[in-house]
Model the fold of this input.
Amino acid sequence: MTALADTRPGGATAGSGGGRARPARPLRRVLGRHPLGLLLSAPYLVFVLVVFAYPLVFAGYMSFRDYFFAAPGVDVDRPFVGLENYRTLVADPAVRRSFVNVGIFLVINVPLTVVGSLVLAALLNRVVRLRTFLRVSYYLPYIAASVAVVAVWLFLFSGGGIVNRVLGPLAPDPTWLINSAWAMPSIALFVTWKQMGFYILLYLAALQNVPEELYESAATDGAGRFQQFLNVTVPGVRPATVLVLLLSTVTGANLFTEPYLLTGGGGPNGSSASPVLIMYQEGIEQGKPGYAAAIGIVLVLATLVIALLQNRFAGERDR
Amino acid sequence: MSRTATVLRGLVLGLGALVFLFPFYYMVIGSLQLAPDQSVAGAFPHPGNLTGANYAAIDSRISLFRGLVNSGIFTGGVVACTVVFAVLVGYALAVLQWRGRGATFALALLVQVVPFQLLIIPLYVLIARNYGLADNYLGMILPFAINSTAVIIFRQYFLQVPKELFEAARIDGAGEVGLLTRVALPLVRPALVTVVLLTFIGPWNEFLWPFLITKRADMQPLAVSLANYITNVAATAANPFGAAMAGAVVLAAPLVVLFVVFQRYFISTDLGSGVKG
Done:
């Protein structure tokens, strides 16, 4: 009976915030003033354990084993192979190529994303008429399904497609998505276009925090529009830029749908294969999940290093 | 501001809008053309050349209705789980005092940075192989059922509700559950709409995960069956681009309509605070 009363917060003892300490009952002393909080959070915490923590540990475990699929409940020996999976992936030209591809992707996508979304957001921020229309236009690609917009890009950039008709002799041969030099840049352009609306919204939010007085004082000092943008806007939104860098890098590391669909499973000679695509092919199609898990771990470590470097580089001038 | 600057700004913004919108316009046009006209003139077709035949063609290869239903169940399940669990945790984190509150909040921040690509292989092994949840809605929903961004957005909103409101309701004898449902929730309705819209995008557009764990055509969300059509069937179809784009219109339209209608709730500041954590 007392235990029941204890778990019901908001009762007679909980309400007033008086200064005098009440004699705390045991359960409350252990769990805090509102033990209900733990109960409300329990489903979430269980999910985090089951869907994140356990698979995370499991990925590491698998990467050190010759793991293979077996029927559920069947006890099979999956031998410990140490760093064998890691040695194989370092020697695998397809894996190395996929990491180079992500590098190409990032070199094109990240600067375009940062500059493009910041410039469009800064211009949009000063617009009064048609503001809603423009904002909706910009985030339409972001909310539309990748698979759906891939269909129209295939149509736009096919051999006899409208893009090549407009470009005429300037069009690459063979066309964009089946050309080993252009496949990866085409994917980078597609993803830049697809995601930019989201980053424009982030920058629009950040621009609200740049004080108007800074622009006024810059203008008094004789700074033109462009100088104001460089000296007030760009430093003012630096925290957002760090976030955009991080998110676009993570997007690049997660790349799968676009190379799979746009370039028919990785393009000519794997020229647009991404590490996640290789993970899918090795882990699920070839039945080597241990190897795929090792690729995943290397990919995440590489992403982490890039993110830390970016953070250091972009955040430096704050101090 | 000078006149040239205004004109220049309008020009850049207008050109931007054209680049962002044209593929959508072209998607609709392409889905309605019986024979693909890829010339520049084809972007402005005359009404006589428009037909619904591509929609019939794609529907005969993949069931659009079944795909939409599966997408709906998958998305609905994710949105429902996210909202219910995130409201509970967000409320507990913002309003209640309990041991482990700080650790739970730290965990919610931490989980946001765990990249999904590290988890797909172990999750596939666990969910599809060990738990036998392949070709199963639960298996589809499970990895997305928690959403830490939503937890953080709700916490942020609940923190903004004045403490006195809760104290007053407690003195009036309201239980903690009543406080949550009758006092707190109605006050954070904008957060509710924002979270629903934000979580809707993910599962509706998600391709990789349902692609991995659904092999049966009648269980596949529309994004998966359309992708399979593009990679496998399209080459043999009479007007492959037309049919693929008809499917694309059906897949994209629900979200586009939803966002145009509710766009004022999709406010940049909410998004910013949610992602920043």
Q: What stands out?
A: Chain B has 14 helices and no strands. Chain B touches chain A through 101 residues (CB under 8 Å). The CA atoms of residues 205 and 223 of chain B lie 7 Å apart. The mean pLDDT of chain B is 87.
